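Notes from the pairing session

We agreed to fold both candidates in a single pass and log them together. This is the raw record for the first candidate, unedited. Please don't reformat it; downstream parsing expects exactly this layout.

Candidate A
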Amino acid sequence: MLRLKGRNIFLRALEPEDLDFLYELENDPGIWEISGTTAPYSRHVLKMYLENAHKDIYEVKQLRLCICNLEGAVIGLIDLFDFDPKNLRVGMGIIICQEGQRNKGVGTEAVEILTNYVFSVLGLRQVYVNVLEGNAPSIHLFSKLGFKKVGEKQDWIYSNGSFKNEILYQKINR
């Protein structure tokens, strides 16, 4: 666990006690656009998900961690997805739940911690992120941390009656 601790936050595995937090987050239509969700999740489905959250990234090809402040309160989630050990790459996503917690360095620290984990523990060559073109805070975050814009997917996300472009960023561990 010490590897996943920063100056102001730490990352930890999901626990059964996170059910209410996950229920609120996953059922927030405001984030469905970035999560690809199209319908609400029941507590039962999320409880079953939590019961399997302990599975190894090599088995389920993903890892979801809670972002916690030093007092232990959950303030967001950070994910690894589409884990590809053959090609040594993985996707990353992050959400800081409360507006008041954003733009205070939490996302920067969480991405730094998890990127270091990806490169030093998992031994991967690259991490990539997908960011909607209008998401200035995320574009700033990943650019500042050395992720390079490598492409743009045109009309990639259909939301609220229109298409949005998605930008692909990657960070390569050279």
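Candidate B (folded immediately after A)
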Amino acid sequence: MREDFFHLKDKICLIAGASSGLGKQTCKILDSLEAKVIAIARREENLKQLQKECKNLEYKIYDFYAQDGIKNLVDDIVKEHGKINAMAYFSGTSCVKPLRMIDIEEAKKVFDVNFFSCLELLKCLYDKRKSENLSTVLIGSASLKMSVSSMSVYDASKGALNTLATSLVKDFAKFNFRINSILPAHVDTEMTHKASSIRSDGYNLELEKLYPLGVGKEDDIANLCVFLLSPLSAWMSGQSIVMDGGRVLY
């Protein structure tokens, strides 16, 4: 990739959920394009390692189980680095349980991380004093197009993000801001490894067979995310892009 092609040099890019998986890979690509990356996650040891692997990355420690500190987090970043140009929300937690075993309090915690903290972050960024030509990307789920057993709480929280990326288009356009979402199917990440570990080998084998192009890789999602954050996608907003290796049509 060429940094002049993506026009991301020195742009302030805030990545929530940056310590592993898709968020981490997106940080690395943005850093290679000379963007100014602000990585946010709760595991400092992972953020320190990521910083060593990048050239121009700073980090902030925050646990997105809570919403009450997000405004101060955004204010601190703007004070230190200037107006934010891009934000991708990768923070999330899984819940793999059949319906009869779901605990409502646990479900609320999943929504806290996967939806409500994202909503609060978007609310804080929706301010021309804090953001400029802002492009945001939310990571939903391809569950919008398919059904996977024992994932109802997780998929519902991601479905809320899918809807958010549509409903905020007009509000964001008032400031020339953009919002899109990516709907990944099964991608090989740390979080999906946890889900796979409690399923049978036979189930996991059948799952892989469902994907004509094979199970997704972190780069597959990260590359699209960088494109959506960049000015190359300047006329795109409100789009929910399914990334599933052809599974829906298979």
